[in-house]
Queue: 2 jobs
Job 1
Amino acid sequence: MNPGFDEVRACIECLRRSWLLADLGPFIEVACDDRPGKRTPELLALDDRDLVQAMAPSRAREMLASNRGLGADLLHGELLAARSWAVCRHDSSFPGVLLGSEDAPRCLIGRGDPRLLAGWDSGASVTVVGSRRPTREGLAQARSLGRDLVRAGVVVVSGMAMGIDGAVHRGALEAGGPGRTIAVLGCGADRAYPGRHRGLHSEITTRGAVISEMPPGSRPWRWSFPARNRIMAALSSVTVVVEARSGSGSLITADLATSSGRDVGAVPGPVSSPLAEGTNSLIRDGAALIRDAGDVVEALGIPGNALRGVDAFDRDPESRAVLEAVAEGSSSVDPIAGRTGFPAELVLSILTRLEIEGLVEVSSTGEVVAVPAVS
């Protein structure tokens, strides 16, 4: 039994808002787009009456009356049946960082440990997002970030999507002890989405927390993903993007973080890779360059960072294999690929990062040499 799974610390009005969003799901799906006034955060900033009137004017009176008829016993019973807890903006355990904007969620419904939200410190949490179809190197980077950030005492926030999100959650869980990772979903927190992450969902609810502003059982909508992204961006003082194409949803999260006054970091990649277009553009436009968890902790301003003395390849088997190949005499991409069995594109990506970290040097002719350690 998860601690606090039966706790309902949300007032009835805030709970009704969550159920209202679920009822309005198909209407918002049709109405929401990229035009000013039709964007998800702008719509969610409306109060109940204005939102219903804007989304379903012909049914506004009926839907509002039905929503007002939802009693505490009914809603508490549904939460209990879903083994979920709830906290709203009127309770002291609600994260204060979510209260600063008009589109802030009224209520968070979750599974797992609600104590992760109590006394929330955005300066000790990082949101990590990225491509749903990443490279092997991107997956390794995300997993390493999740693991090392949790070991540094940081809470890792992501969206449990395929690819980078799932990898960073798994890394956080690998760190040992309480997972200190929170997954923010665009559907009910009791619902494993995507379905292939059913096991990951179960492990996060056992050792971390899964949260949503939607009630149990709610299905995901296209609009509910940018909706959950605004929560992810607001929870942490730093959002890190690991691999993203231009125009991807991860860049939307980064934009939301910037507009909320949060810092953004990005992991660089080869200029020839489409999956590095978004992250490299973020760095060009002023985002912090992120090589490893040490850079993230530094961006958070946490003192006494022990990660800075640990080379990235000590935590990354792919990078370690490439460095060993270089040390054994492989002097360019093809020989390294042959020795490690990695695709040449992966080797080039790893070499780019290792060069940024000062662990190797790559000449204009493509010759690779290891940089001797400074004693």
Job 2
Amino acid sequence: MVGTLKNGQKEDDLCVKYYLVAFLDVLGQKQYLREMKHLPTTDEEKQYFIKNIKKTYSVVTSLREGFKNYFENVKPRITKSNLIPAALREKYLDLQQHHANFFAFSDSIIVSVPLDMSDEFCASMNGIFHALMASASINLAALASRVPLRGGLNVGTAIEVFNEDLVGREIYGQGLESAHYLESSVADYPRIVIGNDLMGFVARVRSQQSQTACGQLAHSIAELCWKMLVRDTDGHYMLDFLGEVVKETSGHATDKNDVAEAREFINNQYQSYLKDENYKQTSRYYRLVRYFNYRAELWGLDPIGSN
């Protein structure tokens, strides 16, 4: 869809598309930022100031780089597994081109993937699959590094514009607003919530009947994406970042030790908040502990609290 700004002046055409948008918030950074309210005056204050800003900024930038590296170095890991039918693996290899863009706002990370409506949604489903995989990989890596994330993923309309004089490249539109709403108002605890429009898009491709290779491949990838979503106790769907698809697709990139380190962190958080009688945070981490226990057997681990 192409439109123009209606302000009476000649403007460049705006290309409005469907995008998959991920909005991720790096939790726990605000405490460091708030401690940097005033410029330091003494050497001791300067050292403390520099230490804090390096700590929080390095966390955020490393996670941004993790997303960027995933999309720039996509490997066809699943082509040798049972996840993609053998007859469609060559076609899957041909689709390993991605156009994800990355944006930053304070301690938040925004990822946008334009969706191509041609080829019976084949390229679109491939982009969605890798966005889900990247989010799952980064989420687990962050927890293993003792950094919780909270996020929202959804499909919606948006424009991507580049204005060298102002903000550089940015994305703007309903898709971004929807993903941000899921993160800020729905997720509540460290999880990545999946929006209804993304659910509906994947469900539509899962149910389509096709005789073309592209359509069949789109269906197969949609099945993978569907298996990466799990319904939480509040009725919302979340990214199943410890599920079977992620485990098999990741291969040796993610192992039992990564999950164990992440699990240790969240259990320590849960126990600490419980001890301090911070029941709001206790409730949040209890839900995350319960999810890890749900997937413990898959990774060869005992449930938290079983010993």
